[in-house]
Structures are given as structure tokens and as C-alpha cells.
Amino acid sequence: MKFEKYHGIGNDYLVYDCQKNTEELDADKIRKICDRNFGVGSDGILAGPYIEDGEFAVRVFNPDGSEAKRAGNGIRIFAKYLKDAGYTLSERLTIRTKGGKVQVRFLNADGTRIQADMGKLSFSSKDAGLAGEAREALREKMVFGQKEYDCSCASMGNTHCVIPMAEISREKVCTIGAFSERSAYFGDRVNTQIMKVLDKNNIQIEIFERGVGYTLASGTSSCAAAGVAYKLGMIDSDVMVHMPGGKLWIQIDEDWHVMMTGSVQSVCRVEMTEDFLRFEP
Ligand SMILES: N[C@@H](CCC[C@H](N)C(=O)O)C(=O)O
């Protein structure tokens, strides 16, 4: 099994080219390979390219073996992989995910800076995976680990719970995420962001991802946090999202279409040994 490792501002993924590899990926292998001590280590695996009606498609797997509908950094990484591996020579392409289509545009020749049209952000409770009557899931009181939080939920193809706060930290988001990710409010788990508004055009977030845990950056989380902050009147529609791994530029139009711009970097090529694949802990 061969992989190519990339990262988008510290959110690292292994690309598994299903056109070049023959072995099936399953949840056990995904968990082993993504393990940071016993495997290669990554925030997930991007499997593809699959071809659907002449368009590229990718599947996103979390390190716990679950499948995600979308990954914003993952989309930019996969686009760069398609360019690096010679699958495309175009400046623009469409990539299908389980959470909808994304249009990407390479902003420079080596494909390290990419803009992605992430589609429409939704605040519908149904899209965010919440139970109860259909509503816009904004400023709802939710209890995680016996503490009440002011939560606004959104879907950017995958589900997010955004909690504005005066001060944020890794420790705080991990404490909340340990309860929020699997809380009964959400039908199929959730990505959690705590968010500090720096000014009208800058926000800072810490992230606890569904199926992953703490990550240094997340593309869909940036879109959701910026969308919630804009919807609540805290910021303008053009915003830089600051994360421990780096920054993403998010632009939201009047129709809630979200553009995400940021960098990606290739890291290495790896081939799993027979020993590793055979080893049973
Ligand atoms: N890191 C990603 C989000 C990956 C998917 C998430 N863990 C989920 O299960 O929804 C990003 O950059 O968006």
C-alpha cells in the first residue's frame, strides 16, 4: 500500500490512490495507518480518484475508521495531488465528495495555493444533524459535561457546532469536544469549534474534529465558524480564520456561498511494509 502525505496548514492527510493501489482500505487498516505512534500518523485518509460522470470524486476517512462527508483542507490537498500525479492540467476542476461538489481553482503554478468554492452553508437543524422541529440552529443552549454553552450549528457538507467565547485554548476545546462530539443532540456526531472574534475581519478558532480529536486546522470548521459569526452579526462577510496551524481566508456571499482560500504542501511518499500490515497488536 502506497500513500502520499500532504498537509493543509498542519491538518495532515494521506492520499491513497485507488487507481494505483489494489488493496482495499478498511476501518482496521485506516486506524492502524493513521496512528501517530504505531503507524504513519495523519488526521485522515483521502481515497480516490473515483470517476463519477466524468468528474473526480474522493472519499474522506477519519483516523477512527469512520467516513466523513467533507474535508476542506482535504479537498485542497486532493486537488494538489490530482495535479502532482498528472490527473489534471486544468486550472479549475470539480471534485465530488459525499457532502456535495466542490469547485477548486489553482492560484499558482505549483498548486500550493488553492481557492475552493465550498457551496452553500446551511444553518438548518436537519442539515446539522439535530433532532426536533426544523429550525435555524442558532444560539441554542447545549450542555456538554454538565456545563451549558451557547451553540450555533451549521452544515458545510459535514456538521459543525460553533461556540463563541472571550478566550479560547486547546485545553478548552478538548474538554468540550470530549462530550460534544458524541452528544445525543447530534444524530451522527459533530465537529466542534470554539471561536474568538478578534475584529470584524479576523476570527480565531480551536477545533475538535469528529472522528479525529484535536487538530491544528480544519477547512470546513473555518467555513462554519466564519458563517456563524457573520450570521450572528459579529463580523463582515470577508474574514481571515486564524488557527494554530495557520490561516484560511473565507468569503461569504449574500446567498451563503462560501469561498475558502489557503495553502497546501506535499510532505513525503510512503509504502507500508508487509510486516506492518500483518502485525496484530
Ligand atoms: N479536517 C477537515 C474535516 C474532516 C472531516 C471531519 N473530521 C468530519 O468527520 O466531518 C477539514 O479540513 O474540513
Automatic annotation (TrEMBL):
It is an enzyme of class 5 (isomerase). The record marks H160, E209 as: Could be important to modulate the pK values of the two catalytic cysteine residues. It is found in: Cytoplasm. The keyword Amino-acid biosynthesis applies. Keywords: Amino-acid biosynthesis, Cytoplasm, Isomerase, Lysine biosynthesis. It comes from the Bacteria. Its EC number is 5.1.1.7. It catalyses: (2S,6S)-2,6-diaminopimelate = meso-2,6-diaminopimelate. Substrate binds at N11, N62, G72, N73, N158, N191, E209, R210, G219, T220. Catalyzes the stereoinversion of LL-2,6-diaminopimelate (L,L-DAP) to meso-diaminopimelate (meso-DAP), a precursor of L-lysine and an essential component of the bacterial peptidoglycan. Homodimer. HAMAP family: DAP_epimerase. Belongs to the diaminopimelate epimerase family. This is Diaminopimelate epimerase. The gene is dapF.
